[in-house]
Amino acid sequence: MQEIADRVGVSKYAVSKALSGKSGISAVTRSKIFEMASQLGYMNQKSAKKTVSSKQADEEEHQIVGILIPNIRSQNQESGYWGKVLDGISKSLEAKGLGSVLISDDSPRNFNLVMKPEGLMGIIGVGLIATPMLVELRNKAIPFILVDHEDELLECDSIFMNNYDIIRKLVKFLLGKGHTRIQFIGELGYSRSFIDRWSGFRSVMDESRLDYVPSEGLLKVKPTLDAHNLNLLQASLKELEASRFPTAFVCANDQIALLAMSALQQLGKQVPEQCSLTGFDNNLEILGETPIITTVNAEKEALGIKAVDLLQWRLENSHMPFEKVLLQSDLIIRESVGDPVNQ
Question: Membrane-spanning regions, if any (predicted)?
Answer without folding.
Answer: none
